[in-house]
Amino acid sequence: MAAFELLERDGLARRGRLETPHGTIETPALLPVVHPDPARQPLSPREMRARLGIRAVITSSYITWRTPPLRATAESRGIHGLLEFDGPVMTDSGAFQQHAYGSVEVGPDEILAFQNTIGADIGTVLDRFTEPESERDDAASALETTLERARVARSQREGLLAVPVQGGRHEDLRLRSAERASEFADVLAVGGVVPLLEQYRFPELARALAAARPGLNPGAAVHLFGTGHPMTFAFAALWGVDLIDSSAYHKFARRGSLLFAEGTVSIDGIREDLCHCFLCAELPLPEVARRPVAERERRIAFHNLLTSVEEIGRVRQAIRDGTLWELAERRATAHPALRAGLAEATRHPEVFLPTEPLSRRAFREVMPDSRTRPAVARFRRCVEEYGRDRPLPARLHRVPLRPEYLARIPTEDRGGRSIEWVCETPLGTVPVELLDLYPVGPYLGVDEFVDRPGHRPASAVTAELRERSELDADLDRDWSEEWTRRQVRALLSVAYGPEIAAAVGEEARGARSHRTGRLRTIGADGNPWFVIGTDGFPRPTFHGASRLLAFLPEGRSRVVVSYDAVPFVSRGRSVFSRFVTRADPNLVPDETALLVDRADTLLGVGRLLLAPHEMPRLRRGVAVRVTAHAKAPVPVDEVEESPAEPSDRGSD
Ligand code: GUN
Ligand code: ZN
């Protein structure tokens, strides 16, 4: 077990790798469904690899088993011999045939043994396919059967095991299924959803995923059975799906349908060269339409697989860039049903928030629904909480102002009463001192272009304030210092709570960029304690962390590492998850934590790759990337003997 390693993430979505006996699968990965009978397969797996870079495929062990000549070949030459493919091969078990034809003629033990015999890299338990319409009692008893089979299968298989997650539309059953399957599975395969995908019932799919998700072991790879259309890949990845299978490339080809990430196009109506993929460049689509059936099918299947491979590449790139929500939203415009599915996803922020990063490089509005992303849900909670901690504002004003005008805006009236200023933004009402924070700080939306306030000289701002001024405030004084103080407190309060903000704020001062006027550092005696990046969050330096240590209660903002990792972490090596003994459960990915040993001695600071709840379960790879540390870097020759993993894989 523990075959999955997470390398990079965007919320629940992960870029990772799954080790198999026939090589590593880079995830999210597309596994084309190939027919075990080469005569019924429009493209051979070998050709898929040579021309499209396909690394892994999935096939049916059940069809192989029940077709004597295929079975004989598979038994003598293995499934890799039958498919003439030496990359990773996942085999399915026959549950889908139960869905399609009502029954399967093989028992769970026999089909598992067969998958072992033919050398499947990932074998699948014979589950009971639960239709979305199944009543609760039936779904529950089918689930027990599947789980019992999984328990037996685990004891009879050494290789990677996929355990389907069923439960139909019953949310508690989906959760239980995910939790119990997690005890046995290297691959958690969310099943019973083909009817939802075929009928574009994406909100129901979202509810099934939302229900199962909290129960899925983060240390296992997640497969979603049946998501063949490339327009759905970003949506699937958003939930943390690592493996996607596609029979759609072939199924759609049979009926003359071309798959694009933007939707489906029937070849019959095509008169223009819509596609210039290398295949369509060879023979334009209007001509493909007139070819004999077999050639036409083969060419369309090839094109379909090509657009699917391209899209899974875009998904992986989006995870690297932190733009997967944007990609998913763009894809959702392909079909209103998919948009409805995405809207349903945002109704489950609790599913996304534990792994939602502190910030991303940018926040681009794609559609009105962009304003309901989990990042926004978190930000609204943060603003509310900040408001709760504050005295009631003496005055509340809605000002369309950016922080560069701060010198002109008074923080108190002539009577010395505090004036609280808030700004109306596309993401709601935000106190002015929090305007730099992600997502509102880097927010780029239509409003900026529709109703652009333009740059106004500070004198104009003063004039406007004066005009509106029912305030008895001194508008000629320079208020920058006050704003800096207020902003320092506000940011520290958001990060560590009001008491710590008050204590640290006593000693530390903020410094602004001369060029942009934005707060850049918080520190004292010329030492920065916190550095503030473009996401607006103060991140402690090593020096700052050592000061924070005194203020924060034990455990808070900490990741505790075991003693054998101390020499490495204190010299700047990444913290591998298996050396984490405890982590503050309130930390989130990308947040900067204090790295300490068990005696609470500071070793360094680093950014979380994993959420705290994932650290005990993802035993392979990096949990925290160290950004500043106590000692000089570890010499290279010592690294070889380290108890840490031999290379810093994953920190690429
Ligand atoms: N293929 C499509 N859906 C399913 C499913 O629910 N279970 C299995 N084993 N295979 C599938
Ligand atoms: Zn094409």
Could you characterize what this model shows?
This protein is α/β, with parallel strands linked by helices and 652 residues long. The chain contains 25 helices and 28 strands. It has a domain at 14-249 and 337-349: Alpha-Beta Barrel (TIM Barrel). The strands form eight sheets. A six-stranded parallel beta sheet has the order 4-11-10-9-8-7. Strands 24-28-27-26-23-25 form a six-stranded mixed beta sheet. A four-stranded antiparallel beta sheet has the order 19-20-21-22. It is globular and about 90 Å long. The protein starts with a strand and ends in a 13-residue tail after the last helix. Bound molecules: guanine and zinc ion. Residues 275, 277, 279-280, 303 line the site of zinc ion.
Q: Topology, please?
A:
Layout: E1 4-10, E2 13-20, E3 23-27, E4 29-32, H1 45-52, E5 57-60, H2 61-66, H3 68-83, E6 89-92, H4 95-101, H5 108-117, E7 122-124, H6 136-156, E8 160-165, H7 171-181, E9 187-190, H8 194-198, H9 202-212, E10 221-224, H10 233-238, E11 243-246, H11 248-254, E12 257-260, E13 263-266, H12 278-282, H13 285-288, H14 293-321, H15 324-332, H16 336-345, H17 349-352, E14 363-364, H18 374-388, E15 396-398, E16 420-425, E17 428-431, E18 443-444, H19 447-450, H20 458-468, H21 480-496, H22 498-507, E19 509-512, E20 519-524, E21 527-532, E22 538-540, H23 542-551, E23 558-561, H24 566-569, E24 575-576, E25 580-583, E26 592-596, E27 602-608, E28 622-629, H25 636-639
Parallel strand pairs: 4-11, 5-6, 7-8, 8-9, 9-10, 10-11, 14-18, 15-16, 23-26
Antiparallel strand pairs: 1-2, 2-3, 12-13, 16-17, 19-20, 20-21, 21-22, 23-25, 24-28, 26-27, 27-28
Bound molecules: guanine and zinc ion (ZN).
